[in-house]
Amino acid sequence: MKVRYGVTFVAIVALLSACGVIRGDDEGSKGAVTTGVTREPCPLAVDKNKGCIYLGTISDLTQGPFAALAVPITDAQKAFWKRVNTAGGIGGKYEVDVQAYVRDNKYNPEVHRQVYNEIKDKVLGLAQTLGSPTTAAIIGDLKANNVVSAPASWTSAWEFEDVIVESGANYCVEAMNSVDYAMETYKPKTVMAVHLAGDYGADAAAGAKIAAEKNGLEFTAVETPPGATEQGRAITEITKNKPDLVILTTGPADAAAIVGQSAAAGFKGRFIGTGPTWNPALLKSPAAPALKALYEQSSPGKPFNADTPGHKAMREALTGVTPNDGYTSGWVWSYPLKAALEKMVASGDISRKGLLAAVKTLATVDYEGMLPPEAGNFSGDPNTATFRQTLVNKLDETAPTGVSTVKDFFIGPTAQAYAMDGPCYAKL
Amino acid sequence: MIGVLESVIRGLGNGSVYALLALGFVIIYKATRVISFAQPALMLAGAVAVSYLTEVTGFYLAVLLAALLIAGVALGIERVAIRPMVGRPVFVVAIITLGVDVVVRVVVNGFIGRDVRQMGDPWGLHQVALGPLVVQQRWLAMLAVTAVLVTLLFLFFRHTRYGLAMRAAAFDQETALAQGVSVGAVFALSWALAGFLAAIAGMFVGTGQGVEQLTWIVALKALPAIIVGGLDSLGGAVAGGLTIGVVESLFQSYQGEFAPWLGQNFAVVTPYVVMLVVLLVRPYGLFGTREVERV
């Protein structure tokens, strides 16, 4: 009997060992240069003689509130890195894979942390970590392990994190510039920030507050829950207090409900919404006349159809897609990682530490005209490095994404003078 | 005063939608003793169906077709996922409906895509003057259509053979079965009715603002409505829905002024606060059947 147990035990051990469970085999470690980098080619390699740098993607791909943007962001990044690989890869030695480790965070910080833990030992960095509260759930680990990551959010908190390579002005600066633009164009006396809770809405509201104080305007903040049907209170506050300018930081459906119903109730003030308040489908909504009359969109970058080499390359790489500025954002966010990877490979220190060191030397990044090169400054202190230029778009039914630029990259006096000494949302 | 009345009309409009959804919950509960958590998905599916059909058939026919389509979908769900579970603990069936909700929503989200889909309704954000009151036309439409549907529903239960069969089965399934009532048909009919009402509710949720993937959350407000009205009372579902709508609307308009210390968005939780208060006073709801337990 004992013999039979013994034989069974040995058989199980032999089986597990053969499968690599006990021996500690790790698929990713075959030919590994460092964590997330192999000498072997990428699964979808253009040139099989090059090694592979694996970057993870954690995005809101199915049922979260930002899936409408997250899917185009992720698709644009696949196209971006495919273009990099086709053009010779990184330093002629490596190609980049962003497809092997794509995970869905459902815009839930707990899920985000869980899927990050699944992939963190298999990737060099993250090509995308979508959302501010979700990324906040893993930021400690990113810092502890030097995991350089491109964010898919524009909160001002990222100015203070070395491992996050952000592109474009943060929501706080964007709202400051919006108020300054309105001062010049509409001369308001009262400003109301209608915003979602958390470091998207609160970051912009804080920027609007700082700019209102600087311009001597009366300021009120109205926090509103997400959901078009939940905007009754925000609409009441707007129509009751009649501010001259409303800075909106919500989702697109919420923005349409607020602008449309406020206008229907006789409100005639101006609305400037941050980038994510716009969706081209709103042009077909009942709120469209009100949006055309009263709404403009502030933005950290030029829209999909802009005439820059980067935009052209993006459109060529993404032929056949329905234009959406999710693609534009995803594409832009990838440039600093590309620049840092090139520096890392050139330096010879191919490791997470090497990548972070490369990031810290970047004073400019070539965005192929999509953003000014100084938007990619990761070498200075946060106050110096913070990029402060944004644009204002107006509704344009002839444009592919429904908006065209009315004021090109500019820095308002408030953002110019502001000392970025901590995340803005803490100051609301 | 005018502001209060306008808020009340807005609340009655939104409350009508909650009432339609709540009626679906109650009809299924009365027939099967199960709370169906698939209602949010059916609501969303109805709205999305209208948004597609309206481009082909025009709005009014689209609403009718979408409601019939969703009734059919609900029938299918009942036949495939719920009927085989007859006799199993109701808790298990309720959990199955949760799964059905997720599956249907994933499919419907595919049809919604990235954009906000529009209903093509004639009301949009247009307003109408009722004497000194200025209110949105869609709120009046919600109220009027709900009133008509509720009246038809009550006539159906009171004056038709199938309505009588449903009431009998709700009262005592075994006795109804012994009297020749097909309890299976009653289950199916209850799901179809709930699907029909959910589709109409979904269409109304989408008016003026469109539907997106997260719109399903609105349907959750029908849960406090059915608890307030009483789980097994059709009249209670209507009263509960309207109450929730009006209280929510009044809080949206006036809580910031009169009770700012409650925080900025207290209106969001008011349906649940009303539910808690009613539960404390009448645990079986305003119109629910008082349960008598012998010890």
UniProtKB/TrEMBL annotation, chain A:
Asked if the Swiss-Prot or TrEMBL record annotates the protein with the keyword Signal, the reply is yes
Q: Record's Pfam families?
A: Peripla_BP_6
Residues spanning the membrane: none
Record organism: Nonomuraea endophytica
Per UniProt, residues of the Leucine-binding protein domain are 53-371
The keyword Signal is annotated on this UniProt entry? yes
Question: Could you tell me the keywords of this UniProt record?
Answer: Signal
Q: What is this protein called?
A: ABC-type branched-subunit amino acid transport system substrate-binding protein
Name the family the entry cites.
Belongs to the leucine-binding protein family.
Q: Return the Gene3D superfamilies for the record.
A: 3.40.50.2300
Automatic annotation (TrEMBL), chain B:
One cellular-component annotation, GO: plasma membrane
Q: Which UniProt keywords apply?
A: Amino-acid transport, Cell membrane, Membrane, Transmembrane, Transmembrane helix, Transport
**Keyword Ribosomal protein attributed:** no
InterPro entries hit by this protein: ABC_transp_permease, BCAA_transport_permease
This protein's source sits in the domain of life called Bacteria
A single GO molecular function term of this UniProt record? transmembrane transporter activity
Q: How does this protein sit in the membrane?
A: Multi-pass membrane protein
Which parts of the chain span the membrane according to its record? 12-29, 59-77, 89-112, 139-157, 177-205, 225-247, 259-281
Can you say where in the cell this protein is located?
Cell membrane
Grouped into one coarse class, the protein's main location is membrane
Single GO biological process annotation from the record: amino acid transport
- Please state which protein family the record places this protein in: Belongs to the binding-protein-dependent transport system permease family. LivHM subfamily.
Q: What is this protein called?
A: Branched-chain amino acid transport system permease protein
